[in-house]
TrEMBL record:
InterPro entries named among the record's database cross-references: AAA+_ATPase (IPR003593), ABC_transporter-like_ATP-bd (IPR003439), ABC_transporter-like_CS (IPR017871), P-loop_NTPase (IPR027417)
Pfam families linked: ABC_tran
Classification lineage: Bacteria, Bacillati, Bacillota, Clostridia, Neomoorellales
Keyword hit for ATP-binding: yes
Ranges of residues in domain ABC transporter: 3-232
The protein's name in its UniProt record: ABC transporter ATP-binding protein
SMART domains given in the database record: AAA
Protein backbone atom coordinates (compact mmCIF):
# COMPACT_ATOMS: atom_id res chain seq x y z
CA UNK A 1 0.00 0.00 0.00
CA UNK A 2 1.54 3.31 -1.06
CA UNK A 3 -0.49 5.46 1.34
CA UNK A 4 -2.29 4.17 4.44
CA UNK A 5 -4.31 6.57 6.59
CA UNK A 6 -6.23 5.43 9.66
CA UNK A 7 -8.31 7.65 11.94
CA UNK A 8 -6.07 10.60 11.15
CA UNK A 9 -6.91 13.99 12.71
CA UNK A 10 -5.40 17.44 12.98
CA UNK A 11 -6.60 20.21 15.27
CA UNK A 12 -5.44 23.82 15.31
CA UNK A 13 -6.53 24.97 18.78
CA UNK A 14 -10.26 24.29 18.93
CA UNK A 15 -10.56 23.94 15.11
CA UNK A 16 -10.73 20.35 13.90
CA UNK A 17 -9.24 20.82 10.40
CA UNK A 18 -9.09 17.06 9.68
CA UNK A 19 -11.41 14.74 11.54
CA UNK A 20 -10.72 11.04 11.87
CA UNK A 21 -10.19 10.18 8.20
CA UNK A 22 -9.20 6.75 6.85
CA UNK A 23 -8.29 5.58 3.33
CA UNK A 24 -5.60 3.81 1.35
CA UNK A 25 -4.00 4.55 -2.02
CA UNK A 26 -2.48 1.77 -4.16
CA UNK A 27 0.60 1.85 -6.35
CA UNK A 28 0.06 3.54 -9.71
CA UNK A 29 -3.34 4.97 -8.77
CA UNK A 30 -4.40 8.52 -9.66
CA UNK A 31 -6.17 9.52 -6.45
CA UNK A 32 -8.14 12.78 -6.57
CA UNK A 33 -8.65 14.68 -3.34
CA UNK A 34 -11.58 17.08 -3.62
CA UNK A 35 -13.52 19.44 -1.40
CA UNK A 36 -14.41 23.10 -0.98
CA UNK A 37 -11.92 25.66 0.31
CA UNK A 38 -11.06 25.04 3.94
CA UNK A 39 -12.28 21.43 3.99
CA UNK A 40 -8.91 20.06 5.11
CA UNK A 41 -7.22 18.96 1.88
CA UNK A 42 -3.96 20.88 2.24
CA UNK A 43 -3.72 20.00 5.93
CA UNK A 44 -4.02 16.30 5.01
CA UNK A 45 -1.43 16.58 2.24
CA UNK A 46 0.97 18.40 4.55
CA UNK A 47 0.66 15.60 7.11
CA UNK A 48 1.26 12.96 4.44
CA UNK A 49 4.30 14.81 3.05
CA UNK A 50 5.93 14.89 6.48
CA UNK A 51 5.53 18.67 6.80
CA UNK A 52 2.97 18.74 9.63
CA UNK A 53 2.62 16.41 12.63
CA UNK A 54 -0.86 14.91 13.04
CA UNK A 55 -2.79 15.35 16.29
CA UNK A 56 -4.05 11.77 16.34
CA UNK A 57 -4.27 8.64 14.24
CA UNK A 58 -1.92 6.72 11.98
CA UNK A 59 -0.47 7.29 8.53
CA UNK A 60 2.21 5.53 6.54
CA UNK A 61 3.54 6.84 3.24
CA UNK A 62 5.75 4.54 1.12
CA UNK A 63 5.95 2.41 4.25
CA UNK A 64 7.34 5.28 6.36
CA UNK A 65 5.60 6.43 9.52
CA UNK A 66 4.58 10.12 9.42
CA UNK A 67 5.54 10.69 13.07
CA UNK A 68 8.92 8.97 13.20
CA UNK A 69 10.13 8.98 9.57
CA UNK A 70 9.02 12.34 8.17
CA UNK A 71 12.49 13.06 6.77
CA UNK A 72 12.50 9.81 4.78
CA UNK A 73 9.07 10.68 3.41
CA UNK A 74 10.25 14.14 2.32
CA UNK A 75 13.29 12.70 0.53
CA UNK A 76 11.35 9.99 -1.31
CA UNK A 77 8.17 11.69 -2.50
CA UNK A 78 7.67 14.29 -5.20
CA UNK A 79 5.69 17.39 -4.22
CA UNK A 80 4.30 20.10 -6.46
CA UNK A 81 1.91 22.85 -5.39
CA UNK A 82 0.45 25.85 -7.16
CA UNK A 83 3.17 27.92 -5.46
CA UNK A 84 5.98 25.88 -6.99
CA UNK A 85 9.34 27.38 -6.23
CA UNK A 86 11.49 27.81 -9.27
CA UNK A 87 14.57 29.99 -9.23
CA UNK A 88 13.60 32.68 -11.71
CA UNK A 89 17.19 33.83 -12.31
CA UNK A 90 18.38 30.31 -13.07
CA UNK A 91 18.00 28.53 -16.39
CA UNK A 92 15.82 25.48 -16.91
CA UNK A 93 18.85 23.20 -16.65
CA UNK A 94 20.18 24.98 -13.55
CA UNK A 95 16.82 24.62 -11.83
CA UNK A 96 16.83 20.89 -12.53
CA UNK A 97 20.44 20.61 -11.33
CA UNK A 98 19.51 22.46 -8.16
CA UNK A 99 16.65 20.06 -7.35
CA UNK A 100 18.84 17.06 -8.17
CA UNK A 101 21.13 18.37 -5.42
CA UNK A 102 18.29 18.93 -2.94
CA UNK A 103 17.07 15.37 -3.49
CA UNK A 104 20.60 13.96 -3.35
CA UNK A 105 20.52 12.36 -6.79
CA UNK A 106 23.89 10.55 -7.13
CA UNK A 107 26.28 12.83 -9.04
CA UNK A 108 27.00 10.28 -11.78
CA UNK A 109 23.27 10.00 -12.52
CA UNK A 110 22.35 13.69 -12.65
CA UNK A 111 23.24 14.34 -16.29
CA UNK A 112 21.38 11.38 -17.76
CA UNK A 113 18.40 11.94 -15.47
CA UNK A 114 18.04 15.57 -16.53
CA UNK A 115 18.51 14.71 -20.20
CA UNK A 116 15.81 12.02 -20.02
CA UNK A 117 13.33 14.35 -18.30
CA UNK A 118 14.08 17.18 -20.72
CA UNK A 119 13.52 14.82 -23.60
CA UNK A 120 10.27 13.39 -22.25
CA UNK A 121 8.83 16.77 -21.21
CA UNK A 122 10.08 18.48 -24.37
CA UNK A 123 12.17 20.96 -22.43
CA UNK A 124 15.26 20.24 -24.55
CA UNK A 125 15.35 23.46 -26.57
CA UNK A 126 14.65 25.56 -23.46
CA UNK A 127 17.49 24.29 -21.27
CA UNK A 128 19.38 27.61 -21.42
CA UNK A 129 16.30 29.79 -20.96
CA UNK A 130 15.91 31.48 -17.61
CA UNK A 131 12.80 30.36 -15.72
CA UNK A 132 11.55 33.95 -15.62
CA UNK A 133 11.21 33.95 -19.41
CA UNK A 134 8.98 30.86 -19.57
CA UNK A 135 5.18 31.04 -19.94
CA UNK A 136 2.96 29.71 -17.13
CA UNK A 137 2.47 26.33 -18.79
CA UNK A 138 6.20 25.80 -19.34
CA UNK A 139 7.05 26.94 -15.81
CA UNK A 140 4.67 24.35 -14.48
CA UNK A 141 6.23 21.70 -16.72
CA UNK A 142 9.68 22.65 -15.45
CA UNK A 143 8.39 22.49 -11.86
CA UNK A 144 7.11 18.98 -12.60
CA UNK A 145 10.52 18.02 -14.01
CA UNK A 146 12.15 19.32 -10.80
CA UNK A 147 9.68 17.35 -8.67
CA UNK A 148 10.51 14.17 -10.62
CA UNK A 149 14.29 14.47 -10.76
CA UNK A 150 14.80 11.84 -8.02
CA UNK A 151 12.26 9.47 -9.65
CA UNK A 152 9.80 9.46 -6.76
CA UNK A 153 7.36 6.52 -6.68
CA UNK A 154 4.69 8.86 -5.26
CA UNK A 155 3.85 12.38 -6.40
CA UNK A 156 1.71 14.81 -4.38
CA UNK A 157 0.15 17.60 -6.43
CA UNK A 158 -1.73 20.38 -4.61
CA UNK A 159 -3.77 22.29 -7.21
CA UNK A 160 -0.95 21.93 -9.73
CA UNK A 161 -2.80 23.51 -12.66
CA UNK A 162 -4.27 26.58 -10.93
CA UNK A 163 -3.81 29.50 -13.31
CA UNK A 164 -2.63 27.38 -16.26
CA UNK A 165 -4.38 27.62 -19.66
CA UNK A 166 -6.69 24.77 -20.82
CA UNK A 167 -4.35 23.37 -23.49
CA UNK A 168 -1.42 23.22 -21.07
CA UNK A 169 -3.67 21.65 -18.42
CA UNK A 170 -4.64 18.89 -20.84
CA UNK A 171 -1.01 18.22 -21.75
CA UNK A 172 -0.11 18.18 -18.06
CA UNK A 173 -2.75 15.50 -17.43
CA UNK A 174 -1.48 13.43 -20.36
CA UNK A 175 1.90 13.46 -18.62
CA UNK A 176 0.33 12.46 -15.28
CA UNK A 177 -1.44 9.53 -16.95
CA UNK A 178 1.80 8.37 -18.52
CA UNK A 179 3.50 8.56 -15.12
CA UNK A 180 0.73 6.52 -13.56
CA UNK A 181 0.96 3.94 -16.37
CA UNK A 182 4.64 3.58 -15.49
CA UNK A 183 3.69 2.85 -11.87
CA UNK A 184 4.02 6.26 -10.21
CA UNK A 185 1.25 6.91 -7.68
CA UNK A 186 -0.40 10.31 -8.01
CA UNK A 187 -2.22 12.08 -5.18
CA UNK A 188 -3.78 15.25 -6.54
CA UNK A 189 -6.11 18.03 -5.38
CA UNK A 190 -8.03 20.02 -7.93
CA UNK A 191 -11.05 22.27 -8.26
CA UNK A 192 -11.42 21.39 -11.96
CA UNK A 193 -14.03 18.71 -12.56
CA UNK A 194 -12.63 17.75 -15.98
CA UNK A 195 -9.44 16.83 -14.11
CA UNK A 196 -11.34 14.99 -11.36
CA UNK A 197 -12.97 12.94 -14.11
CA UNK A 198 -9.52 11.56 -15.07
CA UNK A 199 -8.79 10.16 -11.60
CA UNK A 200 -9.21 6.49 -10.77
CA UNK A 201 -10.88 7.30 -7.45
CA UNK A 202 -12.02 10.51 -5.80
CA UNK A 203 -12.15 11.36 -2.11
CA UNK A 204 -14.47 14.19 -1.03
CA UNK A 205 -13.62 16.24 2.04
CA UNK A 206 -16.21 18.33 3.84
CA UNK A 207 -15.40 20.33 6.99
CA UNK A 208 -12.58 17.97 7.90
CA UNK A 209 -14.59 14.79 7.27
CA UNK A 210 -14.03 12.34 4.43
CA UNK A 211 -17.61 11.96 3.21
CA UNK A 212 -17.24 9.88 0.03
CA UNK A 213 -14.64 7.80 -1.73
CA UNK A 214 -15.30 6.10 -5.06
CA UNK A 215 -14.64 6.14 -8.79
CA UNK A 216 -16.05 9.10 -10.76
CA UNK A 217 -18.55 6.78 -12.49
CA UNK A 218 -19.82 5.25 -9.24
CA UNK A 219 -20.08 8.63 -7.51
CA UNK A 220 -22.34 9.81 -10.31
CA UNK A 221 -24.36 6.59 -10.44
CA UNK A 222 -24.88 6.45 -6.66
CA UNK A 223 -26.05 10.05 -6.45
CA UNK A 224 -28.20 9.82 -9.57
CA UNK A 225 -26.53 12.95 -10.91
CA UNK A 226 -25.19 13.46 -14.42
CA UNK A 227 -21.98 15.34 -13.79
CA UNK A 228 -19.22 15.44 -11.21
CA UNK A 229 -19.89 19.15 -10.98
CA UNK A 230 -23.36 18.42 -9.58
CA UNK A 231 -21.99 15.70 -7.28
CA UNK A 232 -19.38 18.14 -5.98
CA UNK A 233 -21.98 20.83 -5.32
CA UNK A 234 -24.24 18.39 -3.49
CA UNK A 235 -21.39 17.23 -1.25
CA UNK A 236 -20.09 20.76 -0.72
CA UNK A 237 -23.50 22.05 0.37
CA UNK A 238 -24.38 19.60 3.03
CA UNK A 239 -22.21 16.58 2.74
CA UNK A 240 -25.40 14.81 1.56
CA UNK A 241 -25.15 11.48 -0.22
CA UNK A 242 -22.02 10.43 1.63
CA UNK A 243 -21.36 6.87 2.70
CA UNK A 244 -20.75 7.60 6.38
N1 LIG B 1 -1.57 26.48 10.48
C1 LIG B 1 -2.86 26.66 10.71
N2 LIG B 1 -3.30 27.26 11.83
C2 LIG B 1 -4.62 27.42 12.06
N3 LIG B 1 -5.60 27.00 11.23
C3 LIG B 1 -5.23 26.40 10.09
C4 LIG B 1 -3.86 26.20 9.77
N4 LIG B 1 -3.80 25.57 8.56
C5 LIG B 1 -5.08 25.40 8.15
N5 LIG B 1 -5.93 25.90 9.08
C6 LIG B 1 -7.40 25.85 8.99
O1 LIG B 1 -7.79 24.51 8.80
C7 LIG B 1 -8.91 24.42 7.93
C8 LIG B 1 -8.59 23.52 6.75
O2 LIG B 1 -7.66 24.20 5.91
P1 LIG B 1 -6.97 23.54 4.62
O3 LIG B 1 -5.97 24.52 4.13
O4 LIG B 1 -6.50 22.17 4.96
O5 LIG B 1 -8.19 23.44 3.62
P2 LIG B 1 -8.19 23.14 2.06
O6 LIG B 1 -9.27 22.14 1.86
O7 LIG B 1 -6.84 22.77 1.62
O8 LIG B 1 -8.60 24.51 1.42
P3 LIG B 1 -8.13 25.19 0.01
O9 LIG B 1 -8.90 24.51 -1.07
O10 LIG B 1 -8.53 26.62 0.20
O11 LIG B 1 -6.64 25.02 -0.10
C9 LIG B 1 -9.27 25.85 7.52
O12 LIG B 1 -10.30 26.30 8.38
C10 LIG B 1 -7.97 26.60 7.80
O13 LIG B 1 -8.24 27.95 8.11
Amino acid sequence: MTVMVKNLSKSFGSLRAVNNISFTVSKGEIFGFLGPNGSGKSTTIRMLCGLLTPSEGEARVLGYDVYREAESIRQNIGYLSQHFSLYEELTVKENMDFYAGIYAVPYRRVKERIAALADWLELGDKMRTRAQHLSGGWKQRLALACALVHQPPLLFLDEPTAGVDPASRRQFWDILKELSDRGTTIFVTTHYMDEAEQCGRLAFMHQGDLIALDSPADLKADSGLNSLEEVFIQFAQGGGGGNE
